[in-house]
Amino acid sequence: MMDAELGGPVLKSVSRSFYLTIRILPAKIQAPIAIAYLLARASDTIADTADAPEPVRLGHLAAFGKMIRENATAGLGALQREIRPPDAGERGLIARLDRCLAWLAALPEDDRREIVAVMEKIVRGQTLDLERFPKGDGVRALQTATELDEYTYLVAGCVGEFWTRVCLAHVPGYGSASEAELLRWGVNFGKGLQLVNILRDIPADRRAGRCYLPEEELLAAGSTPASPAREVFDRWHARASEHLEDGRRYIAALRPARSRVACFLPWYLGRETLRLLQARCPLDSEEKIKVPRSTVRAALARGCLIAFSNRWW
């Protein structure tokens, strides 16, 4: 059952787009998807609250993972005192973590087990992120393509996997493809969306001393993490496009109209962001690329077209 406040105003305050996605989903899967998102957003807030020193954030990430895993609240008070994000919505979420944990505990065992499993991976990815990018002089990069692929799986690919498992468990006839195909496409769908975020956020990450493009590829192209080569950017832009093509396959295989629309919205916005990134490469500008509101409206309109048919593809 949905928690009216957590699944309503609180969710909306930390993600208007995902709030809309939740409202579109079939009712029987709204609760597990919503609480999983809130827990993941909370762990992301813990990892990103720059006012707290990195050792403090790492400690609270580990404690939060244990709370989820063991259905406990030990350490929650300290977390709420020391993690004070500047965003009002995120502060409200942190203040309600006891209720989030109670909502998780009230879910059926199978849903709870899936959420615990995906949160283990997400927290692991966020922990690695803090460990790999400590504060310091200059811009640090991930070392290899394997590290980048691992990161995109841990923070997003596993979400596509989780989403698919929950939907298969609750929605009869969820997809026309095999479970193995849906899981593979779902993982790549999530990884593709995360790569879009990484490519879009290159200017902001550079200012923060981070570069997710692999250093081995940058050095081979005669560039550095502080000034990445266009050929490396283009390579990962193409990888993101390939992953989103698996996202298209995933959506086309779904049967429930609501699920198709819910998945189509982030896919379409991701694809349009890639198009903008190709036209205005973030390596050449500090401006953050963002799709206009008209594109969001177009996504909603076209989502209605693909809800019942694959002809639009």
Overview of this structure, please?
There is one protein chain. 73% of the residues lie in helices and 1% in strands. The chain contains 15 helices and 2 strands. With 313 residues, the chain is mostly helical. Helix 1 (6-14) crosses helix 3 and helix 3 packs antiparallel against helix 4. The two termini are 35 Å apart.
What's a quick, concise take on this entry?
The chain has helices at residues 6-14, 16-24, 27-48, 54-70, 76-82, 88-95, 97-106, 109-132, 145-170, 179-200, 202-207, 215-220, 230-253, 257-279, 293-306, and strands at residues 140-141, 210-211.
Explain the layout of strands and helices.
Blueprint: H1 6-14, H2 16-24, H3 27-48, H4 54-70, H5 76-82, H6 88-95, H7 97-106, H8 109-132, E1 140-141, H9 145-170, H10 179-200, H11 202-207, E2 210-211, H12 215-220, H13 230-253, H14 257-279, H15 293-306
Parallel strand pairs: 1-2
Helix pairs in contact: 1-2, 1-3, 1-6, 2-3, 2-14, 3-4, 3-7, 3-8, 3-9, 4-5, 4-8, 8-9, 9-10, 10-13, 10-14, 13-14, 14-15
Please report the total strand number as a whole number: 2
Any idea what the shape is? globular
Class inferred from helices and paired strands = mainly alpha
Tell me, rounded to a whole number, the average pLDDT.
94
DSSP strand content: under 5%
Looking at the chains present, what oligomeric state does this protein adopt?
A: single chain
Separation, N- and C-terminal Cα atoms: 35 Å
